[in-house]
């Protein structure tokens, strides 16, 4: 058993004083030596953290002891060490950035547990719809799923017309994402747009891999920590992506080492080292090229942190990182 744990979670539950709770939550994470990214919003909580097993157990117990968060479901994975370099606790308007005019506490798609999803996914009357960004489904997705060429969930309204033919078709629409949080709003939005028979994979790809073996998920699942991608299919795994540089089949994904570019691309290990983690020769000539360490994951450069002000950037301004991690 590995000594560290990685926790992925979210909950839609009103928080009356997000700024005050942000400080309390940050201090809790400091006390437990946790690293990761957490969003606090009036609508709830969303986070991914890593830490030693005992510290993660204490963290989960503390959240479950709060009446607002009793129903949080944690996806728990093992790791050899921290999967984050820093701790970020932010206040945001939403726990997942969508700008969609919906409230998951009022309406959402029917939740399917992993085993229910496994039994339904190949039904001819079922259509799987991926609600993740293009670079995420490029490296891994369910067989036969509909994908959208979108950078984030805010672009979903621009792509709904691509599945307009499913309205009143009698088909079951099952949405899925990494950990379930995007589907809470995406499925609600589809219902608001007149779609019926809308379902969602509860707990997302990660929970499906943990509890149902990950069958028919091709490639690997993109995650928002320094692992970059993780395998989820333990039944019939396959590689569906190719190296951006040489075309060799690979599920290994990096951020381009050029900070100006920073593209998410799949890249084999050999090309990573040969091209210093860059996706093009132009990027390779970037005078501010980041040092490639073999992972293709680069943390934000910060100077200091305080519970009241958060991390400060090089210019002394408070950083405002965006995460769409589940």
From TrEMBL:
Function, in words: Catalyzes oxygen-dependent 5-hydroxyuridine (ho5U) modification at position 34 in tRNAs.
Family: Belongs to the TrhO family.
Domain of life from the UniProt record: Bacteria
Keywords: Oxidoreductase, tRNA processing
Gene3D superfamilies reported in the protein's UniProt record: 3.30.70.100, Rhodanese-like domain (3.40.250.10)
EC number, UniProt record: 1.14.-.-
PROSITE patterns, alphabetized: RHODANESE_3 (PS50206)
Enzyme class: oxidoreductase
Cross-referenced InterPro entries: Rhodanese-like_dom, Rhodanese-like_dom_sf, Rhodanese_C, TrhO, TRHO_N
Molecular function via GO: oxidoreductase activity, acting on paired donors, with incorporation or reduction of molecular oxygen
Protein name, entry field: tRNA uridine(34) hydroxylase
Domain annotation Rhodanese: ranges: 122-217
GO biological process terms held by the UniProt record: tRNA modification
NCBIfam families per record: PRK00142.1-3
Catalytic activity: uridine(34) in tRNA + AH2 + O2 = 5-hydroxyuridine(34) in tRNA + A + H2O
């Amino acid at each position: 058993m590995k000594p560290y744990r990685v926790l992925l979670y979210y909950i839609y539950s009103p928080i009356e004083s997000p700024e005050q709770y942000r400080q309390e939550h940050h201090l809790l994470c400091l006390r437990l030596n946790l690293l990761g990214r957490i969003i606090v919003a009036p609508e709830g909580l969303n986070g991914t953290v890593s830490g030693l097993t005992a510290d993660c157990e204490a963290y989960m117990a503390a959240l479950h002891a709060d009446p607002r968060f009793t129903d949080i479901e944690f996806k728990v994975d093992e790791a050899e060490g921290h999967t984050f370099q820093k701790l970020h606790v932010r206040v945001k308007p939403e726990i997942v950035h969508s700008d969609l005019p919906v409230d998951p506490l009022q309406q959402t798609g029917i939740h399917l547990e992993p085993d229910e999803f496994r039994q339904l996914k190949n039904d001819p009357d079922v259509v799987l719809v991926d609600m993740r960004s293009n670079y995420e489904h490029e490296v891994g997705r369910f067989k036969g799923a509909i994908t959208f060429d979108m950078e984030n969930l805010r672009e979903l309204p621009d792509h709904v017309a691509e599945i307009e033919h499913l309205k009143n078709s009698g088909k079951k629409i099952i949405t899925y994402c990494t950990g379930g949080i995007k589907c809470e709003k995406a499925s609600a939005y589809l219902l608001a747009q007149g779609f019926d028979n809308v379902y969602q994979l509860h707990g997302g790809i990660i929970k499906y891999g943990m509890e149902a073996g990950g069958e028919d998920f091709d490639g690997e699942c993109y995650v928002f920590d320094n692992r970059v991608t993780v395998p989820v299919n333990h039944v019939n795994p396959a590689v569906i992506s190719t190296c951006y540089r040489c075309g060799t089949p690979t599920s290994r994904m990096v951020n381009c080492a050029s900070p100006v570019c920073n593209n998410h691309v799949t890249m084999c290990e050999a090309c990573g080292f040969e091209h210093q983690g860059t996706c093009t020769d132009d990027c390779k000539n970037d005078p501010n090229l980041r040092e490639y360490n073999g992972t293709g994951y680069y943390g934000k450069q910060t100077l200091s942190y305080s519970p009241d002000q958060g991390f400060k950037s090089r210019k002394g301004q408070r950083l405002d990182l965006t995460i769409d991690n589940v």
